[in-house]
Amino acid sequence: MEKQGMKDWIVPGAIVVSLYLKWCLGLGSHSGKNSPPLFGDYEAQRHWMEITNHLPVKQWYTYDLQYWGLDYPPLTAYHSWLCGLIGSWLNPSWFSLDDSRGLETSSSQVYMRSTALASDTLIYLPAVLMFVKTWHVSRSRRTQNLALLTLLFQPALLLIDFGHFQFNSVMLSFTLLSLNFLASGNDILGAVFFVLSLGFKQMALYYAPAVGSYLVAKCIHLGPAEGSRLFLRLALTTVMAFVLLFAPFLPPFSPLSTVLHPITRIFPFDRGLFEDKVSNFWCASNVVLKWKNIASPGLLVKISTVFTALGFAPGVTLLLRTGFQQRAASGKPEHKASPRTSPMLPLLVYVLLTSSLSFFLFSFQVHEKSILLPLLPMTLLMSSSAPTSSTFLWGALMNNMAMFSMWPLLKRDGLGVQYLVMLALWNRLLGYNPFAQPKRKLIHLLSAAANTSAIVIHAMELLFSPPARYPDLYPVLNVLVTTPVFGFCLLWSIKSTVQIAWALQGPGTTLKREGAGLEPKAATSDKQLDKITVRPPLPESFRSQEEEKDRTS
Amino acid sequence: MSSGLSHPPPTRLSPILDSDKTAQPSKPASSFWYLQPSEWDVLLLSTSLKLLLFPAYRSTDFEVHRNWLAITYSLPISQWYYEATSEWTLDYPPFFAYFEKFLSYFAPLVDARIVDLQNLKYDSWTVVAFQRSTVIITELVLGAALLRFIRGAVDPPTQRIMSLSLFLHPGLLIVDHIHFQYNGFLFGILLWSILMAREGNKLASGILFAVLLNFKHIFMYLAPAYFVYLLRSYCFSPLGHFQIKSFLSLANSIIAVFVLSFGPFIVMGQIPQVLSRLFPFTRGLNHAYWAPNFWALYSALDRSLLLYTKTTGIGLAVKEAGVASSSRGLIGDTVFAVLPNVQPIHTFLLTVSVQMVFLLKLWLTPTYKSFLTTLILCGYASFLFGWHVHEKAVLLVLVPLSLLAAERQAYFRTFMLASIAGIYSLFPLIFTPAESIVKVVYSTIWLVFVYRALAHRVYEYPRSLAYVVIDTLEKIYVAGFIPLHIVVTALSFMHSGPTVTPVACVPSHDFTCPEPEPSAQTSPGANWQFLPLLLTSVYCALGCVWAFFRLSFVYLKGDMYQGHLNTLQ
Fold it and tell me: Could you say which residues form the signal peptide (chain B) (predicted)?
């Protein structure tokens, strides 16, 4: 094959193949298929398309709440409305009010699947392409393609969105777009897209400490005059964006009290500490400590909030501290900070990981599917790293363990074959084999142990049914394996943040750039700085190493 | 075998980014079981794609094969060809029945209900997973043959592409992994047989073909080419002396294969019953959905003439029976309104006389390449002119034709045209909306890949004006599939409205196609119901017939064309 000719086709080819795969995943079962009276998440999404098309806005968050009442923010509602509008135009019976509940005709399923695919293609795909072009702009084309493939075929996201059926990729891609704009120095647009992400699913709050503290750090970094101006503009646009999002629920369109409906629906504190079996701290420790008996729900909410805050505190602190220190450094006139650049950028993705993981592990009312949120920054980090680097290994481990942690859910959905296929394909695509690594570092041992346990648990589940006394044996074992892995991931992300922050600050200002090169992400954005500010290029030795890594991998 | 187990360390993105792998020298034949990393990639990818089709639509052929599992598992061999609890009686030759018997030993390990004879239309997850897995696993016979083709090829990188394209062929994906059949396995045997011919082991080639015939008798379409080739090149010396020893060993081997297959039934005296199952003579000229062959064009011409006569009142003799037969294209005796009626003997004579031309040439030049081309042309002639041909039979042409694709541009273009028309003609087998997208997208990806990979290897400058004109017309024809598909989709969308049940205008099983309910025919728009099928059939028939004449011309004119296969004797 002619190399050059084929290389031009990698990106379009990968996109088309990913679309095909997503569609094929949709041939399988979805959540709650053939299980009346309540069905599952698929029916929830379909039901929202139905009610938003037939009811006035005022009733969206109040109509028959027992049957999948809308409990996501307004942007999801608008999206449902649009999907329902087009669908009703094609065939009104798919979304007729009340009559269409539990509708699973083949044509309506095809339509639902195509809404998921279309949303994903219209938002997630451009966001990923833009990510590769902004964050890896100075990397080789091969690395960029690799990053694209890693993100396009991320198995956990594909299985939940196109198998189980949800629209997580829309929320994630708004966050991703926000990151892209922050990286290119367009903070206002970054903030707006983050509001959109929050407005699609409140789960984006997991990222809020990171994005918020990054923006504050940037304001600090820019100094009092420039910084406060940016702060005001950010505050204003954020508020404006929220007001616009909620506009139909606000005067003059509705009485002011209407806005309380979505808000009370979005934050349900009347539910339990966790649902089903989820691989977080509370569920895992619940095996020994029965939290329900130990503390009241109100107290548990408080404890979980404190734990979560403790989890993301280091990352947030480091971001703010870096901003502060860099302000001091740029205090001199010759180092005047430009609003286009930001020394905190290398930290941002790590802090996103820290923050979302601490939410996943410690916060109140977490679903197993929420692991997709910490998976996004982790996959972004691994997407450009060499296959022998620890970042890559952590990313691969976390992705595989996230899949494993959702196995009970996927099994219930009837997606066992799809689970195996996607795991095998993605790992093969990346050339990742947890058992072929040299056992030198913690990550190697952890990968081998975690993957072995996962395989053993799968094998046991296949061969033996659980004892009558412990019907939940396998899900609990699953939680006990995956939770520590996610805990280690949290620690790793904190450690990496500290390293980079330290490197950025450095013993002296002259050394700081080289230090940042310890991590590929930092190096990348560092090179972006190269392009924008007039600085001497990186030392030759470092640059050639970096390129060599690209070539040999 | 041991070296096959030692898995080479995988490389990141090896299939896509390290395309230079294809340029690696192929391993010697001794390490045949050694798979290169890129070959593991292909195996994993193709298996993954097929596994994802587990939940896809499946035709009644699925139940047919389940029923055969049940028959061969629960009944003694003496009753196999008499059993009629289900309407899907056993109608493949004995080797296929033995094959089902073999598979049925594993079925109860998964779920005992699979082989329950009374458990008709069983469609639980277990039976789907079991049967679909058997298709994927038995298809490895094809994979192994294709690997072997690469190992000893004249031009391994090109053969690698052709092997890849065959292993991932959309026709097999549609017919085997969605619709449900075991063609991958059967074509695997055919390719092993062709491979033996390429390697000069003609006895093995003949035996394998005899085995194949006893799996599925439709491969008889190819038999004349085998007969002439083996007779000329194995039983006669190059100088034309009859080699009695060779002849006897070949004849005895083939007789032995048939005895192995039909022996038990000969002993039990059931041969007439078996044959009546294999060859039911109750079928019409055309299948329910017209296969894209000569008779599709003939029928379409008849319909057009009838319409023309009706509208203009020109006094052509119209047979009333033909008017009633109408364009619905249903099974039964196809009676023409204007054109002369066609009897089985006509189609037989036409097919044989066309084949004779190629066989004569094969007798004169009994090389491997000549054999391969004649094989394709014989299958092609049977497909185009035969009585009651199924659209799925187009695979008999497309699969061996792929082996010729990279020979030179004339073959490549024929291959592309026949593949596009042939694969499109398989589309009506899959009519459910979700799977329709799968078939279209997958086939398009495949076509683009094959075209991109092979086109530049065989490119030639146009030499004459006629060439340019033909080239343009062919491009227009290929581009026409896009509007065709839009029209067909729109028409079926209009008719699959909420009231009309989708008259599964689909030939449900090889040899049986039940009449649709009479009510469905009389419902409004019933006359137009078959329009999408008719359009598909006629448009694909144009391409198929043209590709046939193209290939015939290239073959008969052929000596000046020198491709790399000419180096093989």
Answer: none
List the single best residue of A1, A30, A108, A117 to mutate versus B (max B Cβ within 10 A). A1
Q: Half-sphere exposure of A74 toward its Cβ, with a 13 Å CA cutoff? A: 21
- DSSP reduced 3-state for B177: helix
Q: Is the pLDDT of residue B451 over 80?
A: yes
Whether residue A431 and residue B51 make contact (CB cut-off 8 A), yes or no, is no
Q: For A310-347, how does the pLDDT look when each residue is reduced to its tens digit (9 = 90+)?
A: 999 999 999 998 888 877 555 554 455 566 678 888 89
Nearest CA to CA, how far is A159 from chain B (Å)?
A: 12
Q: How many CA atoms lie within 13 A of B114 on its CB side?
A: 28
pLDDT > 90? residue A410: yes
How many other CB atoms sit within 10 Å of the CB of residue B159? 20
**Closest of A169, A372, A380, A166 to residue A279, by C-alpha:** A372
Q: Where are the alpha helices (DSSP H) in A267-296?
A: 281-285, 291-294
Residue to mutate among A4, A10, A19, A24, with most B CBs inside 10 A, is A24
Question: What is the average pLDDT across B437-466?
Answer: 88
Give the separation between CA A146 and CA A385, rounded to whole angstroms: 9
More confident residue, A512 or B54: B54
Sign of the CA dihedral with A41 first, then A47, A53, and A59 last: negative
Residue with the larger pLDDT of the pair B420 and B499? B420
How far is it between the farthest Cα atoms of chain B? 77
B20 chain-A contacts, CB cut-off 8 A: 3
Inter-residue contact A304 to A363 (CB < 8 Å): yes
Q: Tell whether B78 is within 8 A of chain A (Cβ).
A: no
Q: What is the DSSP letter of B77?
A: G
Q: State mean pLDDT over A14-36.
A: 91
Q: ipTM, 2 decimals? A: 0.85
**Model pLDDT for residues B13-24, shown as the tens digit of each residue:** 434 333 333 444
Backbone angles phi, psi at B458, to 5 degrees: -115, 10
DSSP notation for B474-537: HHHHHHTHHHHHHHHHHHHHHHTSSSS-----S--BTTB-PPPPHHHHHSTTHHHHTHHHHHHH
Distance of alpha carbon B556 from alpha carbon A386, whole angstroms: 57
Q: How far is B418 from B398, CA to CA, in rounded Å?
A: 7
pLDDT tens profile A342-401: 888 889 999 999 999 999 999 888 888 999 999 999 999 998 788 888 899 999 999 999
Contacts of B489 (CB under 8 A, 6+ apart): B436
Mapped onto helix, strand or coil, the DSSP state of residue B236 is: strand
The answer to whether the beta carbons of residues B211 and B219 sit under 8 Å apart is no
pLDDT band of residue B320 (cuts 50, 70, 90) is low
Sign of the CA dihedral with A145 first, then A149, A152, and A157 last? negative
Q: How far apart are CA B18 and CA A124, in angstroms?
A: 27
Q: Residue-wise over B436-474: b if at least 16 C-beta within 10 A, else e?
A: bbbbbbbbebbbebbebbbeebbeeeeeeeeeeeeeeeb
How big is the A-B interface in CB pairs under 8 Å? Answer: 101
Residue B35, CA distances (Å) to B150, B195, B517 in order: 12, 19, 52
- Quote the longest CA-to-CA distance of chain A: 74
A-chain residues near B157 (CB < 8 A): 1
CA atoms of B235 and B222, how far apart (whole Å): 19
Question: pLDDT grade, residue B288 (50/70/90)?
Answer: low
Name the DSSP letter for residue B242: B
**CA Rg value for chain A:** 24
- In single-letter form, the type of residue at position A472 comes to D
pLDDT at B287: 66
Q: Which of A215-219, A320-324, A549-553 is least confident? A: A549-553
